[in-house]
Amino acid sequence: MTTTAQIGVTGLAVMGRNLARNFARNGYTVALHNRTAARTRDLVDRFGEEGDFVPAESAEEFVAALERPRRLVVMVKAGDPTDAVIEEFAPLLEPGDMIIDGGNAHFADTRRREQQLRERGIHFVGTGISGGEEGALHGPSIMPGGSEESYRSLGPMLEKIAAKAGDGSPCVTHVGPDGAGHFVKMVHNGIEYADMQLIGEAYQLLRQVAGYSPAEIADIFRTWNTGRLDSYLIEITAEVLSHVDGATGKPFVDVVLDRAEQKGTGRWTVQIALDLGVPVSGIAEAVFARSVSGHAALREASRHLAGPAARTLGKAEAAAFADRVEQALYASKIVSYTQGFHQIAAGSEAYDWDIDLGAVAAIWRAGCIIRAAFLDRITGAYRDRPELPSLLSDKTFAEEIAAAQDDWRAVLVAATTQGVPAPGFAAALAYYDSLRAERLPAALTQGQRDYFGAHTYRRTDRDGVFHTLWGGDKTEVES
To answer: What are the DSSP calls for 179-198, one per residue?
Structure first.
């Protein structure tokens, strides 16, 4: 087989197939490989006219088709399948070649793989890819990690196939070393969980408190999508809510079982946030909300647990309430992104990645699931102040969330009095109020810890670490 392909893709399920087509459509010759050769042949038969493909049935043929340095994209399930592919192909590669993992791998696995392959002179590029099957084909947001050397070779190709932001810039950047790319993709998915939960709560409140039908709520979301909430998720929410089930004639949302599944990246985000000591309460509530939805036995309580009496809003009241929900949704969304970027900053510091938060915001402006108009402003905020400790420290965002807070609080009062669960809105507001608070009850918590476990405490009036002898005359001693 002649060495003609600039890049190769192994693993030709939907995402891998569409990514290979994207490369070919952009002028690259693409080597193709799949564990079952029939899928390789099918891709060439159906889409061969889109560009130049080099099908290969064996790993040896696939590697032989690639130009040096070889660029081998792996699009298989995370975990053991990825390790199996690496074990199959790494012995066939030479120093300077690269393996690009485009799956949703755990960043710790990526760090391990990168170190192991680096010792053999092979570059391992853990790469987050967001945008689903349509993004993979037409332009995703791409978050590669790995060495700077690998990005110099691979980057121009990724920049060509990536989504383009409104200013024309490609939605890809070299995020940082080893697992940085997959870490950022993990947090992206955590924000996505929170965003979807908040949208779901807005829908539920508009339906149960304001009394709107799904079709009417779809129209509300379409209106919101023309303003500051302009985003991919708001856009598709309107589409989902306006869809009518063909078999029953009912709103589509009413025939879907209310059990939200998850693949794990949201849980990872929360688990790693706990390890880093970063508060991501909004993301955590979104993960827990999905968990609650899946526990059918627990939810049987709905048959006997009492709730408040229903109250119907008049037309004018409902319209006013919808405006307040928009405020609550926008403010809570800002908090979700604030928590996500804080986690990225903490991870960058912990693992010495030196991640540019402005660059991350910039590559999320198009292609990815959480793409939203206000990411332009987040990009600007971090580029103006790279040391910005929090999005809520940005003057514009702080002013907007302050202006929204009265309506935000009113929505939560309505949710409570009407018995509609809104854990995402509530967690976001509690986070905001915690950052606002001059004093937190953590002082009491630390006093309790010192009482039962001699865990010590610090004082507000002088330096040092102290312990009180609680069992006697409560004498304070310096530790």
So the answer is: THHHHHHHHHHHHHHHHHHH
DSSP designation for 51: S
Q: Strand pairing of 141-144 and 123-130? A: antiparallel
Taking CA atoms, 226 is separated from 165, 323, 400, in Å, by 18, 14, 18
Percent of the chain with pLDDT over 90: 91
**By the 8 A CB rule, do 460 and 441 touch?**
no
pLDDT tens for residues 334-370? Answer: 999 999 999 999 999 999 999 999 999 999 999 999 9
pTM: 0.95
Are 332 and 408 a contacting pair, CB within 8 Å? yes
Pairwise CA distance, residues 20 & 23, whole Å: 5
CA gap 194, 385 in Å, rounded: 25
Report H helices in 130-179.
Answer: 132-138, 148-161
Annotated catalytic, 192?
Answer: yes
* Active-site residue (options: 50, 148, 185, 474): 185
Instruction: State how far the Cα of 207 lies from the Cα of 238, in Å rounded to an integer.
Output: 14
Contacts of 80 (CB under 8 A, 6+ apart): none
d(CA 268, CA 106): 8
For helices 265-276 and 281-294, give the axis angle rounded to 10 degrees.
140
Choosing from 114, 192, 201, 285, which is the catalytic residue?
A: 192
Q: From edge to edge, which strands make up the β-sheet containing 71-74?
A: 53-55, 30-33, 7-10, 71-74, 98-101, 123-130, 141-144
How many H helices and E strands in the chain?
A: 20, 9
| CA atoms in the 13 A half-sphere facing the CB of 347 | 32
CB 214 within 8 A of CB 251: yes
